[in-house]
Here is the input.
Amino acid sequence: MTDLTGYVTINSKDAWTEYFAFLCEDKMDDNFNFEELQKPLEMKEYTTVEFRERDGEELPDELPSPRYKARDVTLYIAVYASTLLEYNTRRAAFMEAIRAGWVNLKVKDLPATYRFYYKGATDAKVITDVTGTTIGRWKVKFREPKPGV
Here is the structure.
């Protein structure tokens, strides 16, 4: 397995060295995780006033700075281990870390650090080869309450 040290950090801990966890994709040549992290933010609507006696709606001449809605982000996560027992231990430690509160996620090739909280996860799909090497993959859903901040 390729050394993925420094690729993803979670709360200032390297995901690979701490949990042997990494972002993975569903299919070869897919960019789902990057697309999720970089999807455009949705703007909140401006406060408007509507009068029955006037057409349309009223807005101030100078619009306030844009503000963004909270968003959900789903990421594919995988954990690598030499045995099924080691995999279960690492996965449990990883899940405990992301469920404990704020998740500050940093991906090496992206400029932002994302501040999430855990919302849920799918069941893991686990593969063990004849040597006992085990990799499990699942989707984790996070909420980013203040995106772009």
